[in-house]
Amino acid sequence: MMSTARAFPGSALWFLGEPTSAGMHSGTITFTASASGTYQYLCAVPGYARNGMFGKFLVIG
């Protein structure tokens, strides 16, 4: 469960997406980052972010 608001409108994907040939799920989102900075992203499936499914991205503008 997320405890903070999204940094940018449209920057969240709340479904598993379509399964790939390997049985995994994928999804694509497109959003406009309106402020420079370092932001975190994570998998919202319970327990996944705690087990390493998260990262950071940098917006330079």
Q: In percent, how helical is the residue content?
A: under 10%
Shape: globular
Mean pLDDT across all amino acids: 80
Strand order of the largest sheet: 1-2
Largest sheet: 2 strands, antiparallel
Count up the helices: 0
Q: What letter string, H or E per element, gives the SSE order? A: EEEE
| C-alpha Rg (nearest Å) | 13 Å
Low-confidence runs of at least 5 consecutive residues: none
Distance between the termini: 30 Å
Q: In total, how many beta strands?
A: 4
What would you call the structural class?
mainly beta
Classify the beta-strand content into a percent band: 25-35%
Provide a compact summary of the structure.
The protein has 61 residues and is mostly beta strands.
Fold and architecture overview:
The chain has a domain at 33-61. Helix content is 0%, strand content 26%. The chain has no helices and four strands.
Walk me through the topology.
Layout: E1 18-19, E2 25-26, E3 37-42, E4 54-59
Question: What descriptive keywords fit this protein?
Answer:
61 residues, mainly beta, two-stranded antiparallel ribbon, 0% helix, 26% strand
